Amino acid sequence: MKKIIKIATRQSPLALWQAHFIKEKLIKKYSECFIEVLPMITSGDQLLQTSLATKGGKGLFTKELELALLSGEAHMAVHSMKDVPANLAKDFIIAAIPERDSPFDAFVANEYSSLHTMPKGSVIGTSSARRICQLQYHYPDLIFKLLRGNVQTRLSKLDAKEFDGIILAEAGLCRLGLQHRITTRLTLQECLPAVGQGALAIECRREDEILQALLKPLQHEETALCVTAERAMNQALGGGCEMPVAGYAHLTHGILHLKGMVGGVKGQPLIFSEASSDTLDPMALGEQVATLLKQQGAQDMLQQFTSRDSPS
Q: Which end of the chain offers a freer environment for a tag, N or C, measured as fewer CB atoms within 10 Å?
């Protein structure tokens, strides 16, 4: 039994909330352990004026935490699952996926009741290519601009009237006690969520089997099935966390269902595919939906999107 467990996390208020949430769960289970949260600044936290797609993707939010795991400075790291790259380095493993919170996106505004009611030319802030390509399709008269930073920073820019509305993950707002700021929840038809959105990932070194055993009770099997299917789809597409790829899986009456979306550069239509499985093989289901998307031209669309963001 480990007597000291150190949890690496980002310094943002949301990341700290998530790490302390896991800490409390571990304390309840293992009262004899001393558990410490180690806040860290990641490369992604320092790149606030540019799209992550041009700088290496959302892996920039996990790089420094993984280095802390390798050095022994930390034993485990807590991430938002949607920030974890589809291809995890061989030295690491996702040891547990706790129960998922809301996977939905939320529209936040001070003067408008919904995206439908916003006048032509209204400016919406978001950092997500996935959100932009879907919402531009449904709301072509709105303008979407890059908005980076932690939740409080984004809300402050909205309140300062730099934006007419912003899009945030519902789970993040609720975790921070800011659910009163939600104007409306976006439907799955408006905006399919990011792969893994609303779920947490607890990462540790693959060789640390003792810690993996300690973390096993935190695993929520239904969430793990759904998130694994979503991530398998994303991995098969070769899509990074910052790409215009969406996926949402749910388990109903023993049937695992997955819907995926790929968008592209402005003006391209969105492509969707979905499939179901009663074998509860999330990897196979994810790969099946990815194949269906590829048959509609997903890889060409993603390549065009990547080429657009590459330096000339």
A: C
